Amino acid sequence: MSKSMTQSLALPASAVMTYSTIILVALNLRPSMAGIGPLLNRIQADIGISFTQASLLTMLPILAIGLASFVGIRLALRFGESRVMVLALGLIGIATAMRAFSSGLTDLILTALAAGVGIALIQSLMPVLIKSAMPDHLTFSMGLYVSALMGGAAISAATVPWLADHLGDWRIALALWALPSALAIWGWQRSSDVLVLPPVKQDVEDKATPFYRLPRAWMLALFFGLGTAGYTCLLAWLPPFYLSLGWTPTASGLLLSFMTAAEVVAGLLMPSLAKHSKDRRPVLAGVLLLSIVGFIGLWLAPLNFAWLWALIVGLGIGGLFPLSMIVTLDHHDNPRRAGGLLAFVQGIGYLLASVSPLIAGHLKEVFASFGPAWLTLTVVFVVMLVINLRFNPKTYPGLVD
C-alpha cells in the first residue's frame, strides 16, 4: 500500500467523510452517458435511430460539459459552492429520472443535455476544491475522485442491461440512476465546510492574463481534449462495436464495465506513481503507450483478445484522465488560479472531444465498421506522445500568470 494511501486511512473522521463525499459526488458524473451504449440495440429498435443520431446522446452532453465548464467557478464565487453543488447534483438526478418518460430521441437528448450541465458544474469545481482543501494529498485525492467517476460508469454499464431485462423497460433502467444523486446531496451537506474555494486575492486576479491569451493553456486544452475524445469514443461505442460483432447486450455491457474497472484501478495507481516527481512525463508516456496498444488491438484483432484490449486501453485511459488534470494543476501554486486554468482546459477540451462520438458514428456508417475509428484514435494518441514532451515542470513558472 502506498504511503499516501496509508496516510489517508489514518485521517480523522471529518477527512474520511470528506473523501466519502468526493466518492459519492463523482459516482454521479458518468452513468447518464455510460448506460446508453449497452442498451443501444433496444433503444434503436424502440424509437428507430441511426448510429449517427445515437452518437448525439454522448456528443451533446460532452458539448454541454464543455460550455458549462467556463461558468462553474464564477457561479460558486457568486452564490456559494454548496448551493452550486446541490443544484448540479439535483439537475443530474432530475434529468436522469425524467428518462423514465422518454418517448423519442428528442426527450433523450434534452435529458442528456441537462445532465451534462450538472456534470460540468461539478467537474469545474471539484478539482480546485480538492487542491484547496487537501494540497498535501493532491495526487491521491484526484486519483480517488477520478476512480470514483469511472467507477460510476463501470457500475452503470454492468447493471443497466440486467435492470432492463428484469424490469422489462430500458427507460426505467436508465432512470434508476437518479437515486445516487440524492445520496450525494446528503453527503455534500456534511462536508461543505471543508470543500470550499480559497479566498479571492484581487491583486493577483487584476494582474492575471486571461487564459485564452496563453499558448500553454491552449496546449493543455488540446492535450486534455484529445485524451477525452478517446475516453468518450470508448464510452459511447465499445458496447455497440461488440454488439455489431455478435455479442449480447449483457456481454457488451460487462466488457465496458471491465474496461472501466481497469480505469478505476489506473486512476488510483498512476497518480500514485506520478507523485514521486513533479515531472509527470514518464508516467504520461506509459499510459499513452498502453492506450495506443489497446486501440491497435481493437482495430486489428477485436474478437481474439477482446478482454485483453479492454484491460490495456482501460489502464491507459484511466491513468491519462487524472494525470492530465494533475499536470494542469501543477502549472500554478495558487489553487484558484490553477482551478481557473483547469476550468478553461476542461471547457475547451470537452468542446473538442464532443465531436469525437459523432465522427466515430459517421465512420461506422460510411465504412460499415468501427475499425477506422480505432485507427484514427491510434494516430491521435501518437500526437499526444509528442505534446507530452513539452510538459517539463522546470518551464512552468510564468507560463499561466
The helix/strand series, from N terminus to C terminus, equals HHHHHHHHHHHHHHHHHHH
Secondary structure class reads mainly alpha
- Describe the biggest sheet? none
What fraction strand? Answer: under 5%
Work out the helix count. Answer: 19
**Average pLDDT reading:** 86
Poorly predicted parts: 1-10
Helix content: over 70%
Radius of gyration: 20 Å
Separation of the first and last Cα atoms = 37 Å
Instruction: Tell how many strands the DSSP assignment holds.
Output: 0
Shape: globular
Can you summarize this structure?
The chain is an all-alpha fold and 401 residues long. The protein has helices spanning 3-9, 13-26, 31-34, 40-47, 51-68, 72-79, 81-97, 105-133, 138-167, 170-175, 179-188, 202-207, 215-244, 249-274, 281-300, 306-330, 335-353, 356-367, 371-388. 77% of the residues lie in helices and 0% in strands.
